[in-house]
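Field reference: sequence -> structure
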Amino acid sequence: MKPVVSVIMPVYNAEAYLGESVCSVLSQTFADFELICFNDASTDASSDILHRHAQFDSRMKVIDSPVNVKQGGGRNRALAAASGKYVMFLDADDRLREDALELCVKAAVCNDSEAVFFDYCNYAPSTGSTGSVSQLGDDASRLSGDELRLRIIRRTSPVWSAMYARHIITDNELWFPEGVFYEDNAVALAMQLVARNPVKINEPLYYYRCDNPSVSRTKGDMRFFDRIGSAVTLLGHVRRLGVYDAFSDEIDWLFVNQYLIHTIYGAIYRFDRVQEDRIREVREGVGRYVGDFRSLAAYRRLPLKSKLKIETHLRFPGLIKRLSNINRRLNRKL
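Structure field:
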């Protein structure tokens, strides 16, 4: 018989965290699931750890890859092997609360929902710190339909902050880009907007580890600019799937943020030297996708201070970098 939920876990050299992550799934209060782990050519003990757990629990399946296909490829292959009605994504260094599946399935059934959103916790075991994050806001649990979809656009949520009906991914060809980083940026919002009857529950069900190395937190990593292609892919998906027209201004502004604004901020602050080529690429390219972004209602609603911040970073990245370096040196002396 097919399980109700398929938990998808890509794994690459995660031996330090893997036992905790796997056990957080196998000990769920809702038992009708499968855990599909894609071992992405790990060079540490990850494969041994996975197979050792799978030996004692038939709900766990391990797919070993001889070549590294990165997180997007791992998720795709695990999705292709999944048979659950719903899917949930779990990174190999994070964990689920023990009743995560139970609460999500209950909410999905009660609301005939194809996407159930939930809160999460940022936690750092090395320091013992933890903090709950309600990305969509507590009041989102009272929203539905397009009201909730608008909130989802304005406060973009990670792909792992919801449980999805599996068919909305497979039927709509929302596979993750492979061989790149920021792959979830390319499909997460499309999954979330196309889902029927989205619902949000006010429970922190996912524990996101924030004291380990990550591309999203590492400076000087050129893979940061994979976000550019992911933004373009996402815009193509939402236009193709017919969810763009109802929220065109908001989606265009989200694209401008992902493609242009945050790329420029990263090109200035995340590298020792300003990445001028990347800034030129997105400044010249943004108009091809959304026209003059300054004509968007979302841009016009910004306070003057926010507009000035955007415009000075767009026009004077070198000067902004020099001022930032001076400020940092002054702060160190103080």
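Note: The chain has a mean pLDDT of 95.
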